[in-house]
Amino acid sequence: MSTQEKSPPVNKEALKELRQARKAAIAEASKRMKAQKKALKAIREQMGDEEGRTIPEIAQAVSMSPAEVLYCVATMKKYGEVLEGDKDGAYFRYRLAQGVPKAEEAEETGEAAEAAAG
Questions:
Q1: Cβ atoms within 10 Å of 52's Cβ, excluding its own
Q2: Domain ranges (residues) in the chain
Q3: pLDDT tens digit string along 85-96?
């Protein structure tokens, strides 16, 4: 007596029809994902310097609407990829978070600097 249960037979024709019916939707989703990745890459490249950039500066550089750029930057900020800097007029400056020490590391570094100075 076997402990494995037999799986029900697969209707290959039904699966083939389902794949064919969803082919256009899958292609469209892939197209949107590629465009989104391209946009995020362009936005990241604009925020690469230490000063950072404002939303209108990024939007102009990447030829996107400020609303689209703001949505992308806000999402990146939510997930810790972007840091919000000082205000420049009416807009904040945003820069990439990479290379920035975490708060715990900054405290340790600060304590080490104080010990070395004192």
A1: 21
A2: 14-117
A3: 899 899 999 999
Answer whether residue 115 shows pLDDT above 50. Answer: no
Q: Find out whether 73 and 57 touch, Cβ atoms under 8 Å.
A: no
State how far the alpha carbon of 55 is from the alpha carbons of 47, 50, 79, 98, in Å: 10, 15, 18, 19
Angle (CA) 64-53-98 rounded to 5° is 105
Please give the CATH architecture assigned to the domain spanning 14-117: Orthogonal Bundle (1.10)
Condensed to tens digits (0 to 9), the pLDDT of residues 6-40 reads 767 778 888 888 888 999 999 999 999 999 999 99
pTM above threshold 0.90 = no
Contact 6, 36 (CB under 8 A): no
Count of C-beta atoms within a 10 Å radius of residue 24 = 9
Q: Which string of DSSP letters, residue by residue, matches 66-105?
A: HHHHHHHHHHHHHTTSEEEEEEETTEEEEEE-TTPPPHHH
